[in-house]
Amino acid sequence: MLFSSVDTPAETTQRPDDPITPSAVEIPMTTEDVLRVATGITLSIRATSLRLDAISSLLGVRHTAGFEKGDRYDSKRKVGSRIVKTMRERTFGVWHFCPVEHTASPCIVDHARLFVNLFSKCKGEIKKLIMSDDFYVCLHIWNVGCSFYLPASLMGELTSYAEDIRVVCWDNAEAEGGIDSAN
User: What secondary structure does DSSP assign to 50-119, as a single string?
Assistant: First the structure.
């Protein structure tokens, strides 16, 4: 699942020193709206000793998903010929921010502009994370359809927010559950 939360706060007022929250940047969305949007951009910051609140405070933007080293999670493993459920512990932390939860637009350009608008004020802090050997900073762009349009200037702007950019495009029918999407 790409989204960890689809709730948006009802309050729309925000103090200038508050981290950006969904209500401060875009229209409220329902769960159905989020599930219908199949285009987006996610900023991911990974580190062994990452603290979610520390990254949110540093950037002034609250994460939309993530976990910390030591967090426990359900997993499966093979024991002989059986698959058994097991509890595992995270060995690293990841902070994610995904503006798809803040806009219902299916246009990648809208997601990119929202992303740049949200993170332009903390670009220096992101650069420090990129330069540090302790962090890995990556952008993930996904789009339904074989291609998408993104102005070169906007793509250039996005490249300054990460060490790597991963782009995933998939067929409309596959995204909607058709043509063997389960295989």
Answer: --HHHHHHHHTB--SEEE-TT-EEEEEEEETTEEEEEEEE-SSEEEEE-GGGG-----HHHHHHHHHHHH
